[in-house]
Here is the input.
Amino acid sequence: MAVGRLQELDLRVARRKWRSRRSGRAEAGPGFRTENLAAKEAREARQARNQAQKQLNQAGIKARKEERFQKKSLATLQGLGLPIPPELEVPIPDPETLESEGEYENGSGNGSGNGSDHGNEEMIIF
Here is the structure.
């Protein structure tokens, strides 16, 4: 979700650059500088990236809260000896970890990972 939004904004910035070069707008008008346009586009791209990162972080926080609640519910049901519904047995994926694993798979990670964390999913056995 957040990555798609970031790519969409990057595409908009690229289209805007192409249109301004094609139409000659970058040189037109008094006091209008290409540097200002480039700085504005860089700022917009940075803000879009930060916004996408914040959304991903919030989604991760929400997923972890849901997972904690799910674990508590499982423990309560087991303690009472009640049957466990199948929807409580399905693990809740953390969007932040999925995103970082995707970066390592694509080779766009920072290189600090050794790749040993692939496939390490938390499994609860009852």
